[in-house]
Amino acid sequence: MNIAYRWFLGLKFHDPVPHHSTISWNRQHRFKDTDIFQEIFDEIVLQAINHKMVGGRVLFTDSTHLKANANKHKFTKQEVEVVAIL
Q: Can you give the pLDDT at residue 34?
């Protein structure tokens, strides 16, 4: 596994790594019918506001619309009008 990933999680080299589906499984089963993920999200946003990382005055989004086909040789490029709301 990636050593930077282990460092970020506080895992030692031989510690087991959480399975990739752990968060998804917990969301669908263990924490079903709870608002724990909303509470976590709200806390992260609150901390970002407190550290002046976000202000809530302007919202910028960037999205790319592609067909749900992973074939890199089959796609259609389309230009999309950008709408700026001030």
A: 93
